[in-house]
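Sequence in, structure out.
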Amino acid sequence: MPQLNPNPWFFIMLISWLTFSLIIQPKLLSFVTMNPPTSKPSTIPTPTPWTWPWT
């Protein structure tokens, strides 16, 4: 069965994985986020009661 022959496919997978991890990933990780996360105090929102028109 040719699907079990890893001869060309393993090399292609290895080269693509190395390309991603050594070239593309450092470029993507170097970007600075425009909206960095901030630490906000956790507050529980108080719901306002809904006024139904038929009551």
